[in-house]
Write a structure and sequence with these properties.
Elements lengths: L1 H20 L17 H14 L2 H7 L1 E4 L5 H6 L5 E3 L5 H12 L8 E4 L12 H5 L4 H17 L4 E2 L23 H16 L12 E5 L18 H8 L1 H8 L4 E4 L3 E2 L2 E2 L4 H11 L5 E3 L8 H4 L5 H11 L4 E3 L8 H10 L5 H17 L20 H15 L1 E5 L12 E5 L25 H8 L5 E5 L12 H9 L3 E7 L20 H9 L5 E6 L7 H6 L2 E4 L7 H9 L63 E8 L3 E2 L5 E9 L5 E11 L10 E10 L4 E8 L1 H4 L1 E2 L5 E2 L3 E8 L5 E8 L2
Parallel strand pairs: 1-2, 1-10, 2-3, 3-4, 5-6, 6-9, 12-13, 12-14, 14-15, 15-16, 18-26
Antiparallel strand pairs: 7-8, 11-16, 17-19, 19-22, 20-21, 20-25, 23-24, 25-26
Helix pairs in contact: 2-15, 3-14, 3-15, 7-8, 7-16, 8-10, 13-14, 16-21, 17-21
The protein binds alpha-D-glucopyranose.
């Protein structure tokens, strides 16, 4: 009886605990006290194991196999593999393979990895959409939920977060990151690392994160996938490295080296970035894994004549683990590293350093003490289905960006008589969950049709017609769409890309809506009904006609399982949209690269002066700027002020601004802080995001928002690429996007 009472007490306590600490597993797998070891004890254990390992076993730890080739079991028995990029949802298989490892040789556990990018089973918005929430807390919660689900299936390492800055929306992988800005990208990188890794990697439901792709993959020339990157050291350090530094500072356990050539030396063989910056300067102690056969591809890059040379160049540059394909296309580190050591081209000390990094991650994951997965976890899921859905629905709500709402056509009344719901993505499930959706099941996705049906009154008629496919060349479905619109009070069109049109190997030269979708919108809009367009896409699109003509436009990215419910929350006013664009929307591909933190040039664009920096066939401004997003209410900014007009280089000051909700709906607002150094020894960007705060204001409520301006926010890299603060006048700009800003200034004295 006592046991029973005890159990009940534990559950009650745990459930109370769950309410306060949230997202922690209610019932921890029995923690073996010896797993609470300190770093010193980890290092001692690593040294002890290392001293017993053969060269073959050491190289084995530096090899990752993708999938389950037929030779895998023997390879594990021989200690020839250290990690496996495994399928999803197979804890039994994970435990079977782990058992082979734990009963072989030195009993070194395997670590199983997968691409858990925006959810494992429960899918939340694609990372670019999630970044539009400008809410790191919600991003962290999403990642923690994904980690719990992944860990429950034996996946203890995710190849996420992708932290590549992307200024070119032709590049399909822009959907995987946090957009164009180093500051926002750094905040999101840290949130995702902390979410995946939890408070301690040894927690049963924490997984090792992997900041990727190191580095500057997003700067691929012409936005063409896997293309050459050639940027200045300054741009590398000011734009592309900061999110990785943020991930390292957040304690990321692993880093993935990229495919791309970087200034003539491929990222997976670049000693300057991998060792001089990452390992020496930043003191990164985790492991570096290559991208899929990116070491083997050094031969195609033309810097290695064969896999033997490729192995030596990558390893000596700082890549610890070779992610190889199970089609044997990447058997690079094994067997070549052994040969390199025997030939005296690679020192055993260097091998030992890399093996230590691998063993260190495995110890931090507590795999030596707990190599197996509790396969019952998922059946006794510790976070209810409803709570999982609420987590991802909240992040979906906050990821939606209201681009336009002329005459306040939105929100729609729930008892509206009839709605025409039209478009290839209106009743779609498979695309809603976006690319890189891991073990997500499209059948779980709530469609827009379902979400609206869940929301409107029982008397509301929904006249749904697909109208066309995403990439049609024919307009045969238009007629039905027209008749649906004609008999309805309001029209909602759901258009965009398929999930396969963004993500890896999905660059586009054209950013218009695919197929005949824009013609469908034009046709329907021409009927004169109140019209709303909902976009679903993995990148900015050049939706000029829609932006010009349609009164209401929502950017919804690919929102995941709860897409339909979240879109309905916003359409009908149960959530007042608060999303802000993490990336600039160009008017045309011809403007790319276009980003907000650009330089002024010596001839900044002047409408009335031909001889200034602009185009003769297009405005120089974007369609929608970075940081932009509307609300159903209006937020009034006034009274920007600072507490000091002059400071020394090491001093700080506080800037304040009053924000008032003077509309008739409560809402969230992302108050953004930009700084412009007017004159310095290196040309300054016209502005740079240096802070933001997401606040909630009830109708009529005002809040004073304060930002502390610290020396770190004022420094830049001088001509010797050294961080400095130079005296002079600095502008501080604050507002709800990167264009409509209030300004004040202060001076840094000599
Ligand atoms: C892919 C991607 C990388 C991913 C890896 C394993 O090619 O570039 O982001 O983690 O292979 O799937």
């Amino acid at each position: 009886m006592i046991k029973k009472i005890f159990t009940i007490i534990v559950l009650i306590t745990s459930s109370l605990l769950a309410q306060t600490v949230r997202y922690k597993p209610l019932i921890k797998v029995e923690q073996n006290q010896s797993s609470n070891f300190t770093n010193k004890s980890i290092e001692r254990k690593i040294d002890s194991i290392l001293s017993k390992m053969t060269l073959k076993e050491k190289v084995g730890q530096l090899v990752q196999i993708v999938g389950e080739p037929e030779y895998l079991e023997n390879l594990i028995k021989e200690g020839g593999v250290g990690s496996i990029l495994i399928g999803t949802g197979i804890p039994g298989e994970v435990n079977r393979l782990q058992k082979i490892a734990m009963e072989s040789g030195l009993k070194i556990p395997l670590v199983f990895a997968h691409d858990v990018i925006h959810g494992y089973y429960t899918i939340y918005p694609i990372p670019l959409g999630e970044a539009a929430s400008w809410n790191p807390d919600i991003v962290k919660k999403d990642a923690h939920l994904a980690a719990m689900e992944a860990a429950s299936q034996g996946t203890k390492w995710t190849f996420a977060p992708m932290v590549d800055i992307a200024r070119d929306p032709r590049w399909g992988r822009i959907m995987e990151g946090a957009g164009e800005d180093p500051f926002l990208g750094s905040i999101m990188a840290a949130a995702r690392v902390e979410g995946f890794q939890g408070d301690d990697l040894k927690d049963p439901y924490s997984i090792a994160a992997c900041a990727k792709h190191f580095v500057a993959y997003g700067a691929a020339q012409a936005g063409r996938e896997y293309n050459t990157v050639d940027i200045s050291e300054r741009t590398l350090r000011e734009i592309y490295l900061p999110p990785f530094k943020s991930a390292v500072d957040a304690g990321v356990a692993t880093i993935m080296s990229a495919f791309n050539d970087l200034n003539g030396i491929p990222a997976s063989a670049n000693y300057h970035t991998l060792t001089e910056i990452l390992k020496d300067k930043w003191k990164f102690k985790g492991l570096v894994v290559s991208d899929y056969n990116s070491i083997g591809e050094l031969v195609r890059h033309g810097i290695a004549k064969d896999k033997y040379e490729a192995a030596g160049e990558a390893f000596l540059a700082g890549v610890d683990v070779d992610m190889v394909g199970n089609r044997n296309i990447g058997d690079v580190y094994s067997p070549n590293l052994e040969k390199l050591v025997i030939n005296g081209e690679v020192s055993i000390d260097k091998i030992n350093q890399s093996v230590k990094r691998v063993l260190r991650v495995k110890f931090k994951l507590d795999l030596f003490e707990h190599p197996y997965t509790d396969t019952t976890f998922y059946k006794t899921y510790l976070i209810s289905k409803e709570e999982r859905e609420n987590i991802v629905r909240k992040s979906a709500d906050e990821s939606i960006v209201l681009l336009k709402n002329t005459n306040n056509i939105l929100p729609i009344k729930k008892d509206i008589g009839s709605i025409a719901l039209i478009g290839p993505l209106a009743n779609d499930q498979k695309d809603l969950i976006g690319g890189w959706s891991c073990a997500g099941n499209p059948d779980n996705a709530v469609t827009v049709l379902k979400g609206i049906s869940n929301k409107v009154s029982s008397n509301t008629r929904i006249n749904y017609v697909q109208g066309c496919n995403i990439n049609d060349s024919v307009e045969t479905g238009f007629e039905k769409a027209v008749s649906s619109a004609k008999k309805s009070d309001l029209v909602i069109l759901v258009v965009g890309e398929s999930r396969k049109m963004s993500g890896e190997a999905s660059s586009r030269v054209n950013l218009d809506l695919p197929g005949v979708q824009e013609k469908l919108v034009e046709k329907i809009y021409g009927l004169g009904k109140p019209t709303v367009v909902i976009l679903m896409n993995g990148r900015p699109l050049t939706i000029n006609w829609i932006s010009e003509n349609v009164p209401a436009v929502l950017e919804t990215w690919f929102l995941g399982d709860q897409a339909g419910n979240a879109i309905a929350d916003v359409l009908f006013g149960d959530y007042n949209p608060s999303g802000k664009l993490p990336v600039t929307f160009p008017r045309s591909v011809g403007q790319i690269p276009i980003f907000y933190n650009h330089k002024n040039t010596g001839r900044p664009a002047e409408p009335n002066d031909k001889f200034t920096s602009k185009y003769i066939d297009s405005p120089v401004t974007p369609l929608y700027p970075f940081g932009y997003g509307l609300s159903y209410t209006t937020f009034n900014y006034k009274n920007i002020r600072i507490d000091k007009s002059k400071i020394s280089k090491n001093d700080s000051l506080t800037v304040s601004i009053d924000v008032t909700n003077n509309g008739n709906l409560e809402g969230d607002e992302v108050v953004q802080l930009y700084i412009h150094d007017r004159v310095r020894s290196i040309t300054p960007p016209v502005k740079e995001l240096k802070g933001f705060k997401k606040i909630h204001l009830n109708t009529g409520e005002s809040k004073t928002v304060k930002f502390k301006i610290t020396p770190g926010m004022l420094s830049f890299l001088n001509k010797n690429l050294q961080p400095v603060i130079e005296p002079g006048i600095f502008d501080i700009m604050i507002g709800g996007n990167s264009v409509d800003l209030l300004l004040t200034s202060f001076e840094v004295e000599k």
